[in-house]
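look at this record:
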Amino acid sequence: GASMTLLDVVMAHAARSVEPTMGCVTIEMKTSFMRAAKGRLTAHGKLLHRTATMAFTEGRIMDGEGKLCAHATGTFKFVPRLPVGKATNALNTLKTD
């Protein structure tokens, strides 16, 4: 779970690197685990391709010896970015019932 979350985050950052004013949501993610992730880990995300509405990415987690622990590919859809600051508090007043 933690490794997949880390991969999702670095791939989302890679997707948003070309559209920093937009948000993005994960549409699809495939993860392969090569070895146990031990010690200090480093994660990298890379944008492979983008269209007007989608980004295709890959992510890698490496251990302290530079060995590949996990690899993922992800597809992200660009969406309007959520408000920040004072406007964010307005979302707390919404009711779901």
Q: What stands out?
A: The mean pLDDT is 89.
